[in-house]
Structure formats: structure tokens, C-alpha cells
Amino acid sequence: MPTTDSTTSHDILFPALPYSVHQRAGHAVRDVQLQQFIERATVTKDDGRKLVLEQTFGDRADELRTLAGRIKQHALDNLDHYLEQFIDRATQAGTQVHFAKDDRQANAIAMEIARSIDAKLCVKSKSMVTEETHLLPALEGIGCETIETDLGEFILQLDGDAPSHIVTPMIHKDRAAVARAFERELGAAYTEDPKELTQIARDYLRDKYRRADLGISGGNFLVAETGGVVICTNEGNGRFCTSAPRVHIAFVGIEKIVPRQEDLGVLLKLLARSATAQPLTCYTHIMTGPRRAAEPDGPEQMHVILVDNGRAEVLREETREMLRCIRCGACLNACPVYRKVGGHSYGSVYSGPIGAILTPALKGLGNYPDLADASSLCGACYEACPVKIDIPKHLIRTRQAMVNAGHTKPADRLFMRLWARSLRYGWSYWFGGWFQRKLFRMKAKKTLPTGTGPYADRGWLSKAPGPVAGWTSQRDLPTPTSKSFRHWWDHEHAPSIPSKAAEDE
Amino acid sequence: MRIALFVTCLNDTFYPRTGIAVVKVLEKLGCEVEFPKAQTCCGQPMWNNGFTPEARVLARKMITVFEEAQYVVTPSGSCAAMVREHYEQAFEHDAVWRDRARRLAAKTYEFVEFLDRVLKVDLTELGVRWEGKAAYHYSCHLRALGIKADDPQRIMRQVEGLDVMPLDKQEQCCGFGGTFAMKYPDISGAMVNDKVSCIQAADCDAVISNDAGCTMNIAGACRRAGEAKRFITLAEVIAEGMGLMDKGE
Questions:
Q1: How far is CA B248 from CA A18, A100, A438, A461, B240, in A?
Q2: If A129 and its partner were Cys, which of A251, A374, B48, B236 is the partner (CB 3.0–4.6 Å)?
Q3: pLDDT tens digits for range A424-453
């Protein structure tokens, strides 16, 4: 039986709080191998997404994203109504619907179900919500062996590691790592051949599917009008997990609601294309209730656990839009910061740009004071988002909330206030420029060029003190030129059409 | 056509030649350019860091200084985006200032965008000639203005003698991000070094970079890496190419 070193994987996604990104990010950017893995995977996926959207929808891709965003926003704006409808319809179809306020309640409900059927073995497909609630150790704690069946998650489980990407959880590992894990934990002969590796996993997992009492899945969408749970997978493992065992439990965040079945026609068009540049995932299934009397297969019981776990708080008007997220991972792939720091640097289940706004909102601003700050606000995430979450806007709003709540460092606060004040008046702006010019040019005396004229004679600083030290730790800093633009305007500019102003008067 | 130039604090102090080129090109094209002297900074550093009241003070100043202008033109996508995208958000609870912010936003343009969308210039007709192989750095804030990477390059291709060379990961951020570069040097450094590698791999002598912040960052990292490339704005290319300025640096 594979052992999960739950402390390691736990600490990766649930670090000591308050969490700061600096340490892990610093390690990640120096890890040459990690850089290669992430770079290759994210750039390929990002290029693929752009290409497939362009090829399929051309100019109308943007309209489709707008529509998808509206559908999700409408569902969130009327969440009470649609949740009620979902519960009614799902119950009519024979599904048992539960509501969990937080991670503990969600796990407790699952454990109760597992106990009631005396479950000894559970097969689980990929679910970010179960990562949030840290379900695996909870089930194992009551003697129910639980196997991750998504290939990536399975390997992470063998390694006692944690996912670092919403869609491709083991983006930070390569084939050799898989080979080593299979050799060590499953006693397989070492091979790096993808086909053979897949076969090893398949043989191992097939047996588990046959013997499992309990199957656990997540849910990509909940359809209010039918009570259906939608799951999108590529490996077919989700189908085994939800149909072979006697009992199926779906862990789903309350924000996954869509009003109508036909809304899937919009969202499914975008989900797989945004995630993996596929038109659809290989398997898309809609499950509405357990096995019916005349049906040959399917679980005897189907449960849906609707998980809140901080979402009700994010539903506030200012942050509600964040809950549109359909977990496609496109913003991670597009993000130049994610490409450098990797998923574990975000210190939570949700990484990348969406994690940088969602995590502080879900888990408390003070617990993640710099997550939203560690972004260049380039906007690649917004451009990639299939439901048009304005992530840069929310990054800034999160920063505003941090400042207002007093989570900003006093030194940063003072620096920003002084800077703002100096930009406020003509004289202080002039003085600031003059001082910077004198100081920087004096320090960089040896590098000052000649013969370029006073408007291009920048020198360079290689080492600067104070708040600028961070800049020069990585790159040189240009000095101001000896004369400013203002000086040129006042002293050298001769308007080419001086009489025009008079004519206009 | 009357144009008020918002030169930006970085250009004023570090890259005055960019502002000079903008003035010369616009005047050559028959525009009347004024430079409102009371201007300072648009407030973007404060806004981006979440210091909203401080940003609002500077935004009010900008609005007051520029609201009489027919057009406001700035050689910075980033500062143009601040005025166009964020001023309205900054005054979302203040109807009077929000209206004034909206009116300013509606007439504010990034310089290359202004040439393209308002003046609709064709550089081939103007006989702009500038010899060199240059890669183009697409600055991220152009996204917020609805400007795609190919839009400025379409204009560059009108310059006779200029070979616009392909740059790998052209749309990936250089890692500047204002105070981000100082506060997260490890991350920002990794990002800009990635950019430097792409520039090194491109077959170019110069880099056309129209946002002063990006230029400070990328040129500084190129210099640290011992990579000698000329950094120039499209405004300077055009001004030099029309004989309005001497070939610099």
C-alpha cells in the first residue's frame, strides 16, 4: 500500500500562517530543472489555448468568453435560488445532498458515509475541493485506504507530494520522477517509457477499482435545472470512480452551479480548450442520481457534498466575480510569475493568478499578506480567463484591502506616502528629480557617457542602497540624464507653428 | 489639432529624448503641442500598491491639469492605461470626479496609438527611413488599451530600412511591474533574465521599447548580462527617420 507522508504534502498546501511567498519563490527561481519543466508545460499549453480558440471561434472567441462570464455571474448573483433548485432536483433524482460549512464538516460527512457502508477502500478522482478539505488523511484515519486515480495525483500520492497546478498537478515533476516512484513504491521495473508507465499505473489501479467500496469525485459543474453533476476527465478514471464502487460521493464547491443544461454548451466549449487546448475532455459525464432499478450499473448511493469553506464570504459584491472560476488553469499557464515560481510558492491549494486573489479572500487577508502583491499586473491572466474574471483588478483591490486592514509593512506605507506627497506639488516634484539626478549621477560618475547630449547621457548604478537595493540585486539601474525633458521644453523647444494658438483663440 | 503632452515622470527624468521625439514628430505632422507645466505623475505607483486615497489626490491633479486639452498624448502605455482604465474606478463613489475622469479618459492616447488611430498616419508616405534590425518589446499595459502586439509592429513595418525581427515570448511581461521589481527581486529578476535570453536569441541590434519602465528594467538587465543593445522608442525611430533628430547613442 502506498504511504502518504501527509505532513509533507500538508505543509506545502497548508503552511504556517501568515505565509510569505519570498522563501519558496526564491528557491523555485534557482531550481534549474523546475524552471525547465514549468516553462515547457505552461508555454506549450498557453500557445495551444490561443491557437485552438482562434481556429475554432476566430473573432468571436471574446464574445463566447463574455457569455460564459455572464452565465457564471448570473448563477452567483442568484446562488440561493439555484442551489435550492439543484438540491430539489438532485434529491428527486435520488441523490443525497449534504451541505458543509467548512472543511471539517465536509470531511466529517464523507467519513460518516464511509463508516455507514464499512468502506475499506476508496478510489478517488481529481478534486481541488478535497485538497482544500484535506480529505485523504481523514479517510485513511478511519481505516479507509484511499487511492488517487488521476495519474498525476496518483504519482504525487506515492511521493507524498502536493499538486502544484490546478489541471496538471505534477507539472513540477518529470518522467524520471514517475519511474522512480513506481520502482520504489510499486516494485515495478524502472522504465521511462510513457506507455509502460501508464500500463503499470493502469494494472495497479484496475484492481483497486474492482475492489473499492467507495468512489469520490469532484464536480466541474452542477446543473440546477436537472440536479446533475458534471465531471470532465481525460483518463477515464473519473468514470470508474463514480460507477464501479457501491457508493459515490461528489465534493463540489457551491460556486459550481450553472442554471441550465444548455449553459454547458457554452462552458464546456471553453473549459477544455482553455485548460489543455482540447475541444472537449476525453470524458465528459453528467451524473443525475444513483443507479435506477432497470439499470445494470452505477452506484447504489450517490451523494453530493456542497462545500462552502469560505465561499460565502467571497460572495460579497466586491469579490464575487472571483467565484466564476471554472478551474481551467489558463491563467496559471499564461502567468509570467507562475512560470517562474511554480505552484507551491503560492502556499495554498489554488496557485497562480486566481490563487493570488482567491486564497486571501478565502483564508483571510492577514494570512497571506503578500500573495496579491507578488504580481507585475501584466494582465495576461485576464486575457486568458474563459469567464473573464478581471484578475488584475482584483489583485489591486486585494492590495487596497491589505492597506486598509493594516497588513502593509510600516516602512512600505511610509515610503509610499512620502513618495505620493512629493509628487503632489510642482516644487517637491522638481526637488525630487533634482535630488535623484545629483545623487545617482554622482554615484555613477564613472559610467556617465559623453557625446550623447544632455538628454541621453544616462549612467548606470550596479549597487544601490535602501529600497532600490532590490532592483540592483538583479540588474543595473539607469541614472537620470543630466537635463530633464522640462529643461528642454523651457530652453530649447521652439514651437513649429507658433501662430496657430492665436488663430484658435 | 491641439495636443497636451503628458510626458510622464520616468520620461521626464530618465528618457527626455523620448518626449523630445514625440514633440518633434507631432509638430511635424501639423499638431500644436503644449506641455502643461503643472503635471507630475499619474499616480499609478500608489494605485497599484493599494494606496487609493494617495492615488486619488494625484488623479485629481492630472484631471485638473489636462481637462481643457483637445487630446492628451503620452509616450507610455502604462500611464495611458492608468488614466483610461483606473481613474474611473478610483472615483467609483464620486459622481462628479468620475465624470471628469471619464472625459479625460476618452481623449487620452498612447503616442503610437495616437498616430495609428487618430492621425492615421502612413509612415511610408512620410518617407521615414531608419536603418537597423530591431526587436519589438510589447509592453503589457497596451493590453488594457486594446492594442495587440501586431498593431505597433504594423506601423514599424512602414519604416523603410527597419527590419522588425521576431522576438520569442514577445507578449510575456519583462518583470518590471513598478515597485514589484524592487519588492520581489528574485521573481522580477528571473522574469527579466528570461526576456534578456529572448533578446539575445533574436537577430537584432536594437530593441524598440516604448514604455520607460520596461526599458529601465530590460536595458538594465541587458547591461548586467554584458549584452550591448540600443534601446529606443518608436517615437525616436520616427524622429530620427524623418531627420528631425540626430541619430543618438
A1: 51, 67, 23, 21, 8
A2: A251
A3: 999 999 999 999 999 999 999 999 999 899
